[in-house]
Each structure stands twice: as structure tokens, then as C-alpha cells.
Amino acid sequence: MFLGAALAALLAFPAAAQNPRPDQAQFRDLYKELVETNTTLSAGSCTLAAQRMAARLKAAGFSDADLHLIVTPANPKEGALVAVLPGSDPKAKAILLLAHLDVVEARREDWERDPFSFIEDGGYFYGRGTADDKAQAAIWVDMLARFKKEGFKPRRTLKMALTCGEESAPFNGAHHLVTQHRALIDAEFALNEGGWGRMDEKGRRIYLGINAGEKTNQNYRLEVTNPGGHSMRPEKDNAIYRLAGGVMKIGAHDFPVQTTDASIGFFSKMGPQLGDEMGAAMTAFAGNPADAQAAAKLAVDPAYNAMMRTTCVATVLEAGHATNALPQRARANVNCRIFPGTSVQEMQRKLEELVADPQIKVTILSGRGAGGPAPRLTDMVMKPILAAAAKRRPGVPVVPMLEIGATDASHLTPAGIPTYGFTGIFFEPDGSRLHGLNERVRVDAVYEGRDLLTDVVREYVK
């Protein structure tokens, strides 16, 4: 929907590679091993995946001293791997490559193919994690192995952290590394998942994204308690009705418009690309975020609306204990995606203000942690990306974005390691079925992303 006819012709996506280069075939073998290592919370092991990737790096020439397998006794299957390629300049801060090993649950009976078999079919790689996030994890491991084998001597130290627990697990490996092993992963900045490229239904490339900052993913519990009683004697003060009234007030509220450098950059870049009414609204909003008419036009699209403001939505309801009794308790989970600059506690107070009912208790539930201020898109970060994109994908704009989902950047950026989402991989309109059935990613998109990321990282550390 983003593409005009002239631009579509310019940005036609090449056909999927039928005969991979020898180096691509080696990468494919590593990628296959990683995808076929089940790393779900219920039945898998990130520790096993980390061990297998460490073995790959050791075979490439890494010493035991530069490979760190980090496993806590309380979480034996949620291990992480940190690998270090030392630089020649001790005064130059390191660059960190971050990816997560864990994947969302997948049941074989629901999928067309075994989710933990790596299958190449019709120009796609199929399997749970092929897109989120094992493509990038495999690219990082493969890149470090190739750098080591070819004798590449970086000026900056290059670090890689493969962690577990990004997909809503109780234990988060990125948080653990930041709080317990900070020196091991300390860096000038990090590259992480997110910022995927976008293509249309015909495989034409639209833009290549880079995430700079993300909204905080935070859940709140709204709860009403009541003495209850027999349903034959209904009371007006019903816990379900009271809770519903508060939830409806939240649903009717639009939070104020806000911006970051990345969100303004996205709208300013994409407006001219669209060339329609929505594009005109993007251009107008980028030029003047106080333009209420432009903001209202953009808000019609849920994704664009989420780029402009905090959003809160009810996701789970629980109430009552018997069909013939008045409810003694009613609960709702409200999931908020909080714009950078607003704390979790401030949002709690805002929800209390919106429901305007002292009998509705608003509680902060466990979350990922505040994302912190959005990191700036500095020349140090952007110049290598722009140069590599111009070389590998000429004519395709690099578009800054505010991440409206949530990644492990929420743990690193607030701790002083600015973390940017950049994969170099183009996804189709279905988002490569992230978290859904039959996850897949285009073969040529992965190989091209691998080449582009190699160019970028080599330039960062040379």
C-alpha cells in the first residue's frame, strides 16, 4: 500500500537464489542447526543453542577465553552466549551485536510443517524462529566465525550476546547481562532485532528501517472487589459493571500526540513515497506535529497511531465465581505501550485518573522495564548503514522508526548502551508471520541481509 507505480518498477525484488554461494551454504547449515534447536520456554533449551553456537565459534578459532557461556542455577535451560573478538585499540569502545535465542511456542498440529524442522521451499525458509530472531542470531555467529577465519583484525572490539527470555519468559537474559555482567557486554552501542525492511505483495522493496527507541510494554491490573451475594437479589454496585465502566473510559481515551526523532524521520521519509492523502498527512505532521488534522488522518491507521502516542488496551478479563452469585472480584489486564519519556508510575497515575473510581485498584504488573529516552541517530551509527544500503539496495530509502513493539533494547538503552534495531532483512506484508503459524522468511532476503550487515559491522569496527 506504500508504493506508487514508478517506484514499484524501480524497486523490484530479485528472484530467490537457487544456487547459494559456498559461504551462503555454510551459513545456511548454521542457521538450520539453530532453527532446529527447540528454544521454547515449555520444551526447549536456549542453553543447548548457546552451546552449539559456541562450538561453531570455537571451530572457527575462538579461544575459550573469548567465549562465555552464562547459565544461572535457577534457570539452567535459559543460558546465554557472549563472544568477544578483541580489537587493536584499547581506547575505542566496543560494538555489541545482540540477538535472542528463544522463540514463541509452536504446536505441530497447528502448523503445515514441523515448526522445528528447517525447510526451504518455494523461495522461503520455514520454521519457528526463521524470522524472529534466529536469522539475525545466525548472521552474527556466522559473521564472527568468518572474521576469525579470514584473520580480520578489528580496531574496535566486537562483541556478540545471544540471550534467552526476550519472548516474555520470567527470566530475561539481556537484563541479567546488563545487571550482572555489564563489563562483559559494555559497548559504544548495540545492533539488535527490529527495523526490518518492508516489501509489498510482489516482493518489491519499499524501505529499510532502523529503530531508534521503543515504547515501554507494560501491563496493569484493574481490580474491583465486592462482598457479592445471591444473584436473585442483584445490587447496583456490581464488580463487573464497575470494572467495565473503568475499562470503557480507558478505551475511549486518546493519549496526547508525541514525537521522537525517529518517528518524525519516518513520517518525513514515507510521506513523499506514498504520494496520496495519507502521504500528505505524513508530510504535514512531520513538518508540524501540532497539526491536529494531519494527526487525525494518521490515527485512522492503528500502526501510525501507535507511532504518535501512548496506547492502552484491555486484553484479558476475569470475573465472577459462580453463575448464580454476584461477582466478588473482577479483573482486567490493560496492556500499555508507553511513549518514551513517560514512566511506568506516571502511567499508573494516569489510568487511575481516567477510571476516576477509587474502588478500581490499578496495580503495576511485572514488565520489561522502561525503554528510556530514544537514542539519537548519530553519524557514527548511520553513515555505515546508509553507505551499505546505497551499495546493496540502491534507491531504497533508509527510514528511522520508533519501535511500537518491544525488544531487549528496553534493557540496554536505559543502562547506557544505546541499542538500535537493524536487521537488513526485508519482510513481506504479513510480517513474515512473526509469532504466528507457519513462520517464514524469504531466502534471498536473508542472504542479502547477511551481506549488508557484514558491510555495516566491518565498517563500524575497522
Which CATH architecture of the largest domain would you pick? 3-Layer(aba) Sandwich
CATH class of the largest domain: Alpha Beta
Strand content: 15-25%
The N- and C-terminal alpha carbons lie at a distance of 39 Å
Poorly predicted ranges: 1-17
Structural class: alpha/beta
Query: How many β-strand runs?
Result: 19
Work out the count of structural domains. 2
**Helical percentage:** 25-40%
Total DSSP helices:
15
Write out the CATH superfamily name of the largest domain: Zn peptidases
Roughly what is the average pLDDT, rounded to an integer?
93
Shape: globular
CATH T-level fold name of the largest domain: Aminopeptidase
For this entry, what is the oligomeric state of its chains? single chain
Radius of gyration: 24 Å
Largest sheet: 10 strands, mixed
List the helices and strands and how they pair.
Blueprint: H1 5-10, H2 22-35, H3 46-60, E1 67-72, E2 75-85, E3 95-100, E4 119-121, E5 124-126, H4 134-149, E6 158-163, H5 173-180, H6 182-185, E7 189-192, E8 197-199, E9 205-214, E10 216-225, E11 229-230, H7 239-252, H8 261-274, H9 277-287, H10 292-299, H11 302-308, E12 311-319, E13 325-326, E14 329-338, H12 344-355, E15 361-364, H13 379-392, E16 398-403, H14 409-412, E17 419-421, E18 426-427, E19 440-442, H15 443-461
Parallel strand pairs: 3-6, 3-7, 7-17, 8-18, 9-16
Antiparallel strand pairs: 1-2, 2-6, 4-5, 5-19, 8-9, 9-17, 10-14, 10-15, 11-13, 12-14
